[in-house]
């Protein structure tokens, strides 16, 4: 089984182009499945594992207190694994064909109001190089809705300051071109002219946003920066990089943007992922109705 897993991991990396985090998630889920099979003395060749073995594994996870979302992810991983094995001719039948992934109720994410976004943007001390960098990062995240991994992977050449576009690579290394608003461009220009050269130690460094040591910033580093500014702004919500992405999408839809356009900008492969934001805007409509209608 281990050699099949190794082949599958190579497929995810080199053919699917998944990020290291996604690949590691698949690896962990398969290891958990294989460990279960070993405990049950069912660690066999892929052709010997049937639908009942997989159902037993999913049931075992639920008995151990795993969330339904975790079980759904495990099944999705096993399905992908067997689809790969069948595609490569390693198995004759796919035991996951008629297994349905359980529906997981999606938690509606926290979204910042426009006023809260403005308060957040005012927190960096823009009289310092670090503050200018932070303001530019926050403006660009909220202004484009890109993921934190995409933000931190940007190179200087990925921003076209003249045309007002940026190029980024999302999940599966899919390239997309996103418009950048003038406010974000102004802060990026200020960062490039007054801040970045002060931070960068190696002038061959092409990463756009660097940390205090002049190197590529980590996700954890950005999380801490954002959490600190949210606290200073007295925003009583959990504010993560994804909160800015959610806020970007919600504010676009509230102001009449087409759902397909938002899907393209966010880089969602399936429009059903984008549709979660229509629930958010409907919730906002209900709030406004309850506040404003005399019979509400």
Descriptive report:
58% of the residues lie in helices and 4% in strands. The model has no long low-confidence stretch (mean pLDDT 84). Helix 2 (20-39) packs across helix 4, helix 6 runs antiparallel to helix 8 and helix 6 (129-144) packs across helix 11. It is globular. It is built from 14 helices and three strands. The chain folds into two domains: 2-87, DNA polymerase, domain 1, CATH 1.10.150.130; 114-292, Intergrase catalytic core (hpI Integrase, Chain A), CATH 1.10.443.10. The chain has helices spanning 2-15, 20-39, 51-63, 68-87, 114-121, 129-144, 148-153, 182-194, 196-199, 219-232, 241-254, 259-266, 271-274, 276-292, and strands spanning 159-160, 165-169, 175-179. The protein has a three-stranded antiparallel sheet with strand order 1-2-3. With 296 residues, the chain is mostly helical.
Number of strands: 3
CATH fold label of the largest domain: hpI Integrase, Chain A
Distance between the termini: 61 Å
Uncertain residue segments? none
**In percent, how helical is the residue content?**
55-70%
The average pLDDT score comes to 84
Radius of gyration: 23 Å
* Order of helix and strand elements from N to C terminus: HHHHHHHEEEHHHHHHH
Strand content: under 5%
CATH architecture verdict of the largest domain = Orthogonal Bundle
Q: State the domain count.
A: 2
CATH superfamily of the largest domain: Intergrase catalytic core
**Helical stretch tally:** 14
Q: Supply the helix-strand structural class.
A: mainly alpha
């Amino acid at each position: 089984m281990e050699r099949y897993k190794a082949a599958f991991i190579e497929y995810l990396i080199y053919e699917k182009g998944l990020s290291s985090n996604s690949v590691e998630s698949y690896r962990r889920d398969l290891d958990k499945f294989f460990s279960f099979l070993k405990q049950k003395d069912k660690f066999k060749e892929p052709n010997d594992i049937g639908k009942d073995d997989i159902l037993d594994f999913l049931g075992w996870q639920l008995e151990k207190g795993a969330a339904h979302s975790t079980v759904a992810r495990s099944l999705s991983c096993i399905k992908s694994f067997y689809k790969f094995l069948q595609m490569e001719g390693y198995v004759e039948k796919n035991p996951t064909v008629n297994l349905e992934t359980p529906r997981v109720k999606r938690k509606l994410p926290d979204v910042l109001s426009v006023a809260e976004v403005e308060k957040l943007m005012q927190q960096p001390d823009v009289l310092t190089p670090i503050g200018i960098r932070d303001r530019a990062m926050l403006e660009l995240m909220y202004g484009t809705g890109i993921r934190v991994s995409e933000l931190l992977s940007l190179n200087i050449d990925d921003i076209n300051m003249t045309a007002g576009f940026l190029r980024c690579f999302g999940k599966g290394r899919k390239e997309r071109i996103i418009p950048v608003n003038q406010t974000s461009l102004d802060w990026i220009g200020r960062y490039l002219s007054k801040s970045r050269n002060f931070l960068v130690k190696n002038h061959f460094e092409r990463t756009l946003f660097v940390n205090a040591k002049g190197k590529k910033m980590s996700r954890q580093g950005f999380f801490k920066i954002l959490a600190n500014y949210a606290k200073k702004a007295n925003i009583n919500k959990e504010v993560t990089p994804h909160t800015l992405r959610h806020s970007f999408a919600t504010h676009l839809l509230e102001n009449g943007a087409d759902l397909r356009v938002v899907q393209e900008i966010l880089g969602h492969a399936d429009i059903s992922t984008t549709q979660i934001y229509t629930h958010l805007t409907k919730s906002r409509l209900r709030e406004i109705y309850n506040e404003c209608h005399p019979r509400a």
